[in-house]
Fold:
Amino acid sequence: MSDGYLPEMSGSLVYTCIGCGLQYDIYDFIYTCPECKALLTIENTRFDDLKNIPGQKWREIFDARKASNILEMLGVFRFHELILPIIPLEDIIYLGEGQTPIVKTNSELSSWVGTPFLVKNDGLNPSASFKDRGMASAISFLNHVIRVKNLDSVLGICASTGDTSAAAALYLSYLPKSKVSAVVLLPKGKVTAQQLSQPLGSGAQVIEMPGVFDDCMRIVEELAQDYHVVLLNSKNPVRILGQKSYAYEVAQQLFWDTEDLTVVVPIGNAGNITAIMEGFIDLYELGIIPVLPVILGVQSHHADPVVRWRKTGQFTPMKVSPSVAQAAMIGDPVSYPKVKKLVEQHFEDRFYAISVTEGEIMEGMLMANRHGHVVCTQGGESVAGLKKALAEGLIRKTGQFVVDSTSHQLKFASFQQLYFDDAFEADYGITTRDDLKNKPVSLDANAENIAAYLGLKKRA
Ligand SMILES: *Cc1c(COP(=O)(O)O)cnc(C)c1O
Ligand SMILES: [Zn+2]
Structure:
């Protein structure tokens, strides 16, 4: 790679309170404003320096890094200047995250949904969800702070609907055990067996609690406020930095052409949609993309406070009902105030939100996976949301569509099984369709029998 194409340490990051605007040292472990308790965002006070490089030049730099073999340039830190320019390459922890593929829908799935679209498969991250993007930035930063401040006895902690804990446990397990340990809090019985196996396998201390995610979140917030722990939920704005890479990659994979683009994202705690909006804003302000995309947020009608806010102008936290999109089953999204601000300032005419039923989510997942994809229930939620938004005329029918499948099919195989067995509890409200079910048949190990069962014609 030629000179000037490898990132160097630059910029100056501060925490900025989204409420009162006060700024704080990025090296402090704080997650809300000590003055007014509002959320913090991270601002590069030297962002304008980046504007000295024309958009076309930035595109060339990012494309050159894409073609390189330098490990740190293969993950989210390809966009170092836009993520964490204050840390040197040697502090980056790269475990294979980011740069996930986009897959074109075939004609059958396109016509079922109402348009051809691209599925960006964030299930192909190391812990099988997009959470690895933010964990790569949060843990790289932690690694950096531990080195420069010579810290030890660091305890990383998070509450989780399953995937944050998998990602946190994985990335923390890479750091020296002599200095760092990992604790995750999960709502008992509300994460899948696969998700529970992940932090256990990575060696984290797993604490199961009664209640739902919102209850776990309240406990870690209290712990983070009163004790010396490092909070790894998306309330930690360093997570948001890495998650912005989803937007950068979409733009790069579309050859930086965001004209008439709609990006469809499931919303839970609203960290992902916050990061995606912020990512596109960065690119737009640097002249790297010509226009901001339309963002379509999707929620289950069992947990849709953001959709209700968009419809009524009124935000009220809600009590959730069971959802197969369990990773997004959140009634009081922590990052809602950020979404509100981003929408008001940048996306007022280009942010839509829609809710879908539990049955629609399952059909979205099963239909996608019957046509070459490996999407999770939240990916199914995105597919269902796109289909419904097109049918209802909520969004324009033309242009390019990118659907975020936030994790891997296999993490949510238990919901697929419940569907096939018609075994959902009544409160999901799911009526299954026989044509989408699939079950193994048991036959004797006998070719003739199997051929007869399949109705095969014998060769002449
Ligand atoms: C966390 C998660 C979501 C929700 O993302 P938020 O940032 O909480 O809105 C959606 N899908 C999957 C698979 C997740 O793990
Ligand atoms: Zn404040």
Remarks:
- The longest helix spans residues 131-149.
